[in-house]
């Protein structure tokens, strides 16, 4: 899709200069903390601005928690970290109702889930029962305890970290839980130059402690509204739909991509376009976020020897841009 085919209204910048500058400063600040991970930081920003939740799967010690802390400080979000363990109960994260004798009634005491950015650390070390306690929160931005519904703060953003399943003491996330995450990314080891700079700079916790908010709550709301207004042309939607359709007919894939996966793909692509300074999507936006948005939603067939990420990459390679 060439720029000449995009309407003049779509070419009009969706962000004013001040907001675009603040967004750029926010990206730079997080990149100064998480060295050498520009693409992953951009993905995390796209996920947040699109209103999704982020799953980071990688080995311990590569910066997953650091990224969550840096995002919370940069966006000026209230922050809670929940360390998932095998003995963690749903009430430990949601909260409990405690009877108060003086008031002769039960009072709900909110758990750590009541924060704007929740770091669900090592989520796959908890049992499926506790993992499922996040489902309502992530999908509806509310929780129900003792028959009473409690709204969660806005914006509400879950950043979950997950260890590879071949490590001891892990429980695979159910597909219904995986589907609640808009993006799944890996940080991997830093390259040589980034690791050298990291080792020379020392502890990142001190740097995080001195981070300043770059965006206000009204600006975040404005950015999220702008993402929804990024143009996805009929031709681009045809391309996204072709990717979804191909995932449902391939023999290597037992369960293909759902319509909800398609919506997540387009929202993430819109956010990626906005971060690039455009008010319209191009196929490269879809391609940039496709594997991170869809791989964890694909279920390989029993005869497939490819990973989910490899299957997603194959879909991209085999479906032509329309």
Structural features, described:
With 322 residues, the chain is of the alpha/beta class. It folds into 2 domains: 16-229, P-loop containing nucleotide triphosphate hydrolases (Rossmann fold); 230-322, Helicase, Ruva Protein, domain 3. Helices cover 46% and strands 15% of the residues. It has 14 helices and 11 strands. Helix 10 packs across helix 12 (259-275), helix 12 crosses helix 13 (283-294) and helix 13 (283-294) runs antiparallel to helix 14 (308-318). It is globular and about 70 Å long.
Feature tags:
alpha/beta, two-stranded antiparallel ribbon, Rossmann fold, 322 residues, disordered N terminus, 14 helices
Q: Topology, pairings included?
A:
Elements: H1 8-11, H2 17-33, H3 38-49, E1 54-57, H4 64-75, E2 79-83, H5 90-94, E3 95-100, E4 105-110, E5 117-121, H6 128-140, E6 142-145, E7 148-151, E8 157-162, H7 175-178, E9 183-185, H8 192-201, H9 204-209, H10 217-228, H11 234-247, E10 253-255, H12 259-275, H13 283-294, E11 299-300, H14 308-318
Parallel strand pairs: 1-8, 1-9, 2-5, 5-8
Antiparallel strand pairs: 3-4, 6-7, 10-11
């Amino acid at each position: 899709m060439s720029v000449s085919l995009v309407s003049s209204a779509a070419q009009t910048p969706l962000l004013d200069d001040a907001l675009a500058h603040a967004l750029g400063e926010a990206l730079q600040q997080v990149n100064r903390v998480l060295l050498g991970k520009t693409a992953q930081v951009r993905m995390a920003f796209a996920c947040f601005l699109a209103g999704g939740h982020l799953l980071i799967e990688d080995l311990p010690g590569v910066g997953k928690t650091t990224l969550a802390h840096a995002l919370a400080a940069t966006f000026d979000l209230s922050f809670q970290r929940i360390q998932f363990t095998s003995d963690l109960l749903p009430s430990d994260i949601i909260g409990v109702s405690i009877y108060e004798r003086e008031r002769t009634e039960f009072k709900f005491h909110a758990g750590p889930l009541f924060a704007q950015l929740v770091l669900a650390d090592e989520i796959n070390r908890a049992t499926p029962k506790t993992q499922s306690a996040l489902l309502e929160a992530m999908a509806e931005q509310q929780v129900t305890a003792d028959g009473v519904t409690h709204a969660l703060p806005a914006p509400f953003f879950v950043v979950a970290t997950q260890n590879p399943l071949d490590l001891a003491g892990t429980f695979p996330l159910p597909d219904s839980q995986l589907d609640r995450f808009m993006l799944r990314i890996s940080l991997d080891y830093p390259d040589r130059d980034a690791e050298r700079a990291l080792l020379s700079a020392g502890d990142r916790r001190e740097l995080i402690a001195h981070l300043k908010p770059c965006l206000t709550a009204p600006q975040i709301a404005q950015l999220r509204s702008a993402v929804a207004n990024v143009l996805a042309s009929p031709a681009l939607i045809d391309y996204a739909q072709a990717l979804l359709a191909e995932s449902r007919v391939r023999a290597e894939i037992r369960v293909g991509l759902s319509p909800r996966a398609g919506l997540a793909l387009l929202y993430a692509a819109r956010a990626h376009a906005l971060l690039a300074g455009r008010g319209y999507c191009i196929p490269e936006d879809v391609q940039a976020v496709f594997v991170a948005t869809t791989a964890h939603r694909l279920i390989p067939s029993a005869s497939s020897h490819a990973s989910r990420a490899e299957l997603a990459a194959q879909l991209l390679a085999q479906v032509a841009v329309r």
